[in-house]
Design brief:
By secondary structure, the protein is α/β, with parallel strands linked by helices. The chain is built from six helices and eight strands, in the order βααβββαβαβαβαβ.
Length: 173
């Protein structure tokens, strides 16, 4: 079976396999025809435990491209490096070097999404992160879940994110 143009997979869907053996999992994905991957396993400068050069080599050898990466806000883990709140520029540099074109805030921890002010802070952080990402040739975005649509005090948090972010800095998937 040949590869389909732009046929990709979000690696979150195989996260348990990626935790056990990322190289074998990526090979299996390439073997069944995937050509693009979206990472959900970047932590403190490593992609699934591999350095940027190592991950680039693995992907190149398998004919895979990583065009998109999920990131963490870091709000509930301030000691964690290379998140949206700690060493963001280093995160952008690593991902630009990887050949990534899109970085995405993949999730808000429950503790960081309790109030409308929490969502306003996220929107402001999105703008800041989007501006820096743009300097590195990256687009910045947000991957929503259901909780952004549950009203808080009569307002929909997702509307706050949409209305408070700069359209040229933040996209929504």
């Amino acid at each position: 079976m040949g590869a389909i143009d732009n046929f990709g997979v979000q690696l979150w869907s195989v996260r348990h396999l990626m935790e056990k053996d990322p190289k074998a999992t990526l090979k299996s994905l390439a073997d069944i025809g995937f050509v693009d991957v979206e990472s959900a396993g970047y932590v403190e400068g490593l992609f699934y435990g591999m350095t940027v050069p190592e991950m680039k080599t693995v992907l190149l050898d398998l004919g895979l491209k990583m065009r998109s990466v999920h990131t963490k806000t870091g709000i509930t883990q301030p000691e964690l490096k290379r998140t949206m709140t700690n060493e963001w520029e280093a995160f952008c540099k690593d991902n630009a070097e990887m050949g990534v074109t899109s970085v995405v805030c993949g999730y808000f921890e429950e503790a960081e999404r309790q109030t409308l002010d929490d969502y306003k802070r996220h929107a402001d952080l999105f703008n800041t992160c989007g501006e820096k990402a743009k300097e590195y040739g990256l687009s910045f975005g947000h991957h929503n879940h259901d909780f952004e649509f549950f009203d808080i005090d009569g307002e929909t948090p997702y509307d706050i994110l949409l209305n408070r972010t700069e359209k040229d800095l933040v996209m929504f998937e």
